[in-house]
């Protein structure tokens, strides 16, 4: 059966899986319909200003306190949290990885999580981690929530079914899903195997960037964000609930599914978004604008314009700029750039940056088009050109991203990535004129 979604970003949604299950006119009736329990899930402090105040009211078979027994600590050795400093011995430099092979061993969303970088500090709720996931088995009667941050899933291979307390979503390559901090969910691959990228955002929630003079439309439009309708499981089974809390993992056994929310309302909810619905705005006469024009979602900090994380994409688009070098310019950036490619080719690196691959251009490390891309773009006839069938993205954070041992040891780490710039020869010979 096709899944149903509610359109809109940050709306005050309401949805019920059984008629009359959602109380009307108040949040906390003396007795709720169907004998449900009322529970508030707060994603912001109670006193946050209206514009950033987020909470939902859940009407559920059992309250969450019954979905937790005694905790026992355990380890997921490949899922790291900031601060995480390892002496992996790799010298400072720009880094790039080929795609990681899909696993032979059985891996679930939890056991298949592989942290590439961490930034900031999970204890002070700043920074992020960039992970990849490798999945070939469903979480079986197993549920998870993350107290450390929200999770943005960016698949590059295979679809996923994500059943959450607030409803069910399915996503595949070119779509993303965002799972709020504290929300219980379980994940299953729909095509046998699945691989993708994850941004674990420890800071303030992702929100839509301001459009400024662009006006009321384009970039990511609110109606293209989809939140699932209410769906519940009334299953009495032995189940495991896993919690990530300040970088540690805790498990607890219960006798029923915690996905037992029959109705809910509010604005703290999971959502998905199809990156192909992003309407890019760009240079229509000359020059190459800053990539911030392609920000899908931004997780702000208290400092204006200085994101904890920006999620930026490089979707298909027309290049029309006249008398301009059209690909990204050479640059050094105070923000740290973790990039992935979902499909196609990236114009600054047509070769060597493969779908499913990754690159890391950390704080103040120079980078830009490789020698091949430079040569091509400097001599190309500048007629309108469509960049088709391409979707790269960037997790860009204000904080330096530190590499995990896993990332440093990956066999797919390219041994001499910076050699891609070696062919950028001196052209200057002291004589005037365009060379
Ligand atoms: O480095 C990159 O490839 C990402 C990027 C793209 C762009 O168009 C401008 C700046 C930038 O960091
Ligand atoms: Fe960059």
Automatic annotation (TrEMBL):
<feature type="domain" description="Homogentisate 1,2-dioxygenase N-terminal">
    <location>
        <begin position="4"/>
        <end position="275"/>
    </location>
</feature>
<dbReference type="InterPro" id="IPR014710">
    <property type="entry name" value="RmlC-like_jellyroll"/>
</dbReference>
<dbReference type="InterPro" id="IPR022950">
    <property type="entry name" value="Homogentis_dOase_bac"/>
</dbReference>
<feature type="binding site">
    <location>
        <position position="367"/>
    </location>
    <ligand>
        <name>homogentisate</name>
    </ligand>
</feature>
<dbReference type="GO" id="GO:0005506">
    <property type="term" value="F:iron ion binding"/>
</dbReference>
<feature type="binding site">
    <location>
        <position position="337"/>
    </location>
    <ligand>
        <name>Fe cation</name>
    </ligand>
</feature>
<dbReference type="GO" id="GO:0004411">
    <property type="term" value="F:homogentisate 1,2-dioxygenase activity"/>
</dbReference>
<keyword id="KW-0828">Tyrosine catabolism</keyword>
<feature type="binding site">
    <location>
        <position position="346"/>
    </location>
    <ligand>
        <name>homogentisate</name>
    </ligand>
</feature>
<feature type="binding site">
    <location>
        <position position="331"/>
    </location>
    <ligand>
        <name>Fe cation</name>
    </ligand>
</feature>
<comment type="similarity">
    <text>Belongs to the homogentisate dioxygenase family.</text>
</comment>
<dbReference type="InterPro" id="IPR046451">
    <property type="entry name" value="HgmA_C"/>
</dbReference>
<comment type="subunit">
    <text>Hexamer; dimer of trimers.</text>
</comment>
<comment type="function">
    <text>Involved in the catabolism of homogentisate (2,5-dihydroxyphenylacetate or 2,5-OH-PhAc), a central intermediate in the degradation of phenylalanine and tyrosine. Catalyzes the oxidative ring cleavage of the aromatic ring of homogentisate to yield maleylacetoacetate.</text>
</comment>
<comment type="pathway">
    <text>Amino-acid degradation; L-phenylalanine degradation; acetoacetate and fumarate from L-phenylalanine: step 4/6.</text>
</comment>
<dbReference type="InterPro" id="IPR011051">
    <property type="entry name" value="RmlC_Cupin_sf"/>
</dbReference>
<feature type="domain" description="Homogentisate 1,2-dioxygenase C-terminal">
    <location>
        <begin position="277"/>
        <end position="428"/>
    </location>
</feature>
<dbReference type="InterPro" id="IPR005708">
    <property type="entry name" value="Homogentis_dOase"/>
</dbReference>
<feature type="active site" description="Proton acceptor">
    <location>
        <position position="288"/>
    </location>
</feature>
<dbReference type="GO" id="GO:0005737">
    <property type="term" value="C:cytoplasm"/>
</dbReference>
<dbReference type="GO" id="GO:0006559">
    <property type="term" value="P:L-phenylalanine catabolic process"/>
</dbReference>
<keyword id="KW-0408">Iron</keyword>
<dbReference type="Pfam" id="PF20510">
    <property type="entry name" value="HgmA_N"/>
</dbReference>
<keyword id="KW-0585">Phenylalanine catabolism</keyword>
<keyword id="KW-0223">Dioxygenase</keyword>
<keyword id="KW-0560">Oxidoreductase</keyword>
<dbReference type="Pfam" id="PF04209">
    <property type="entry name" value="HgmA_C"/>
</dbReference>
<dbReference type="InterPro" id="IPR046452">
    <property type="entry name" value="HgmA_N"/>
</dbReference>
<protein>
    <recommendedName>
        <fullName>Homogentisate 1,2-dioxygenase</fullName>
        <ecNumber>1.13.11.5</ecNumber>
    </recommendedName>
</protein>
<keyword id="KW-0479">Metal-binding</keyword>
<dbReference type="GO" id="GO:0006572">
    <property type="term" value="P:L-tyrosine catabolic process"/>
</dbReference>
